[in-house]
Amino acid sequence: MEATDLFVPHLEKHGYEVHLADSPAPYADPAFMAGVDVIVQCYTMGTIERAELQGLRAAIEAGTGLAGWHGGIADSFRNSSDYLHLIGGQFACHPGKHPAEEGAGTEQHNFVPYTVNMLPEAADHPITEGIGDFDLVTEQYWVLTDEYIDVLATTTQKVRPWDPWHREVTSPAIWTRRWGQGKIFVATPGHSVDVLQHDSVRTVIERGILWASR
């Protein structure tokens, strides 16, 4: 909840009434969802029931926005192919340091330096306008995607001597998606509070939430 709480003041500042939930259960309540302008989802892995997924999709198709970061949106509900279809990108891996390096098996072992590269399309987009490339040391998401996403920024996984792949792999790091009358925003950085407090990451997410909103 600490990560979600970072953005509550931002929403309240812009006039939103914020409701917090610890499960996707509200998605199955059509009366409640009809009054929701934007969902800020922070729910890694877990499962989603059929009625919850149907309610989420119906709300977005009717104009409710969906926004999130990192595993809270790009690694949610692996049990639902329809959810993956909705989001347009799925976390596959975050390759870490050399397997023999001290700390293997710990969370910190997955923290590597990488760059988020802004695309030309991002230069005048309301989410990313004025933001240049920036560097992070955290989990670098390798993402599986389809072509129906609008990518604003990417990150490239290098080939290191111990890696089994043979060429660099570029994944979207920030993207949007239109679904019915609704809009979806995804940023893959955001593993921890310190990453979310990075000026560029926080600005992108704050803008992305507002952009996705009805």
Automatic annotation (TrEMBL):
The lineage of its organism: Bacteria, Bacillati, Actinomycetota, Actinomycetes, Streptosporangiales. Residues 3-212 form the ThuA-like domain. PANTHER family: GALACTOSE-BINDING DOMAIN-LIKE SUPERFAMILY PROTEIN (PTHR40469:SF2), SECRETED GLYCOSYL HYDROLASE (PTHR40469). InterPro entries: Class_I_gatase-like, ThuA-like. This is ThuA-like domain-containing protein.
